[in-house]
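To: structure subgroup
Subject: Chain for Friday's discussion

All,

I'm putting the inputs and outputs inline so they're searchable in the archive.
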Amino acid sequence: MGDTANRQIEAYLDVNLDKLENFFHSDVISFYGPLVRGIDDLFKHYIEDIRDNPKSKRRTKHLAVILTTPGGSAEVVERIVGVIRHHYELVSFIVPDCAYSAGTILCMSGDNIYMDYYSVLGPIDPQVENKEGKLVPALGYLDKVKEMITKAQNGVLTDAEFLILKDMDLAELRAYEQAQELTVDLLKKWLVKYKFKIGIIIVVQGILLLMKKRKNGLKISLRNWEKHLFGARMLVR
């Protein structure tokens, strides 16, 4: 019974993916989950299978990605975009629910983003794996360390904060800084190369703030969304 139900679900998904492919005149893939190590390999193998499949209905230069993700690694996103752009000239992202953190960075590599009233793009805050193997928001850690250093300089650091600061792993902090630097570099490259190439106006609150700064050389601040998992919704269609 379980196998029968799975086949019915897969058949239903195939029918609707075919409809989307015909609507967008594109290949369509769907991804649901975190953007962590190994997912870049999954994208590579899956997209290569699509492109190499002799039974493929069309040879299109357009890929539409249905994306729902809590976020993940900026490094993984960079590799995914490298794979996608190797095979496709036009890329669209469809966000039916949410694309937080690195998911938002991934969307910025596309030519189009499709959202509705329920869709959310999250704060641009890359996540890094800590010593315990858990993904943590890099900017959140960096902000707290800077805050405690400032308090120490002003002589108001508490004993508890001193112990936390003393036990900070400098190599781990450097990894957070590298994730932040990579994110800024990727945004500068992708926003100019894909989003601004035909003067597209992005309809997402935080990205509009970035676009206003373009005349001054596209200076990007990752603090347009202050809190992790606090998203920006669509403003107009």
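Points worth raising on Friday:
Helices lie at 2-24, 39-52, 74-87, 102-107, 138-153, 159-166, 170-195, 205-211.
The domain at 2-127+174-233 is CATH 3.90.226.10 (2-enoyl-CoA Hydratase; Chain A, domain 1).

D.
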